[in-house]
Amino acid sequence: MDSAKYKLVEEHLARLRDEFRKNLDERIIKIETCWIAAKDPEQAENALAVVIHEVHRLAGTAASFGFHAIGEEAAQLDARLQNALQHSFSWRMFEEFDSRIEYLLDLLEAELP
User: Fold this and answer.
1) For the residues of 5-41, what is the DSSP string, one character each?
2) Taking a C-beta distance cutoff of 8 angstroms, is the pair 80, 31 a contact?
3) CA 37 from centroid of its chain's CA atoms
4) CA dist., res. 68 & res. 107, Å (int)
5) What is the value of pTM for the model shown?
6) CA angle at residue 59 from 53 to 61, to 5 degrees?
7) Cβ-count burial of 48 within 10 angstroms (0-12 exposed, 13-18 middle, 19+ buried)?
8) What 8-state DSSP symbol labels residue 84?
9) 67 in helix, strand or coil?
10) One digit per residue, pLDDT tens: the chain, 113 residues?
11) What is the separation of C-alpha 65 from the centre of its chain, rounded to a whole number of angstroms?
12) DSSP letter, residue 40
């Protein structure tokens, strides 16, 4: 690839990284509020589905934009949540996942613009 095309690709990736970072506050709020809602039996199924979807999205995109710690933690959390769902997610599992969700949120908050 010639240097002009390389520069365009780098500029595009930089814009995508910036956009990713700008949207982190919305993701934090969504994950946090849905995680809290997931502890309410009436809201659990939908709220947990949103949390899993958001964590999965982070696992797929964060590392691509240079946020490796977020991507790694999200990927591990995604795998554990998927495994828990396959084995009948139980209320006592929330304690295990509370600290993992909190850690992921801390990583996200550290990258806020």
Assistant:
1) HHHHHHHHHHHHHHHHHHTHHHHHHHHHHHHHHTTST
2) no
3) 17
4) 10
5) 0.86
6) 100
7) buried
8) H
9) coil
10) 688 888 898 898 899 999 999 999 999 999 999 999 988 889 988 998 999 999 999 999 999 899 999 999 999 999 998 888 887 766 677 778 999 999 999 999 999 98
11) 13
12) S
